[in-house]
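step: validate -> pass
step: tokenize input -> pass
step: predict -> running
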Amino acid sequence: MGAAMSSPNQFALAQFFGEENRRELIVGESNDYGVSSGPHADALVPTKSACGDRV
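step: predict -> pass
step: emit ->
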């Protein structure tokens, strides 16, 4: 069973890119020097929390 979400910082609003019948979201990348995980920065959409803070 997964852990409960307890903070707005645990969510991300992401924009999908793609063509008519296909949608893509990059959630990880790797190369010879390392690995990164999570949505690509270009896909993230800035939001505000209920308290008015930018998330």
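step: describe -> The chain has a mean pLDDT of 75.
step: cleanup -> pass
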